[in-house]
Amino acid sequence: MTKLILTILLIGFGIEYMGDWLSQIVRIAKQERFLALSDSAFLNASYSLIGGAIANIVSLIFMTAISYFKPFGKIKPVVRKPKADAAK
């Protein structure tokens, strides 16, 4: 359940924020070309995008660790007893 919630949050974060930051970077770079490297809005969006990418990678590593180490315990299979009527 933890991995599912974290995955949904990562997808939402990517759609809501990272997509906007990437669009902003592309728009500024298209307008200003090499001068964009000195534009504060471009740099802020670049740092935000890099920070978001790092956060995604850390989250994916965390989810992998949860899958491997299973700190919440393994899911126990449900053992069902056969019905007495089915045997006759």
Provide a quick synopsis of the model.
Keywords: Membrane, Transmembrane, Transmembrane helix. With 88 residues, the protein is an all-alpha fold. 74% of the residues lie in helices and 0% in strands.
Written overview of the protein:
The protein has 88 residues and is mainly alpha-helical. The protein has one domain. The chain has helices at residues 2-32, 40-69, 84-87. Helix 1 (2-32) runs antiparallel to helix 2. The model has no long low-confidence stretch (mean pLDDT 90).
**Radius of gyration over C-alpha positions, nearest whole angstrom:** 23 Å
Largest β sheet strand count, sense and barrel closure: none
β-strand amount: under 5%
Counting DSSP E segments of at least 2 residues, the number of strands comes to 0
Order of helices and strands: HHH
Q: Unreliable runs, pLDDT <50, ≥5 residues?
A: none
Transmembrane segments: 49-69
Keywords: Membrane, Transmembrane, Transmembrane helix
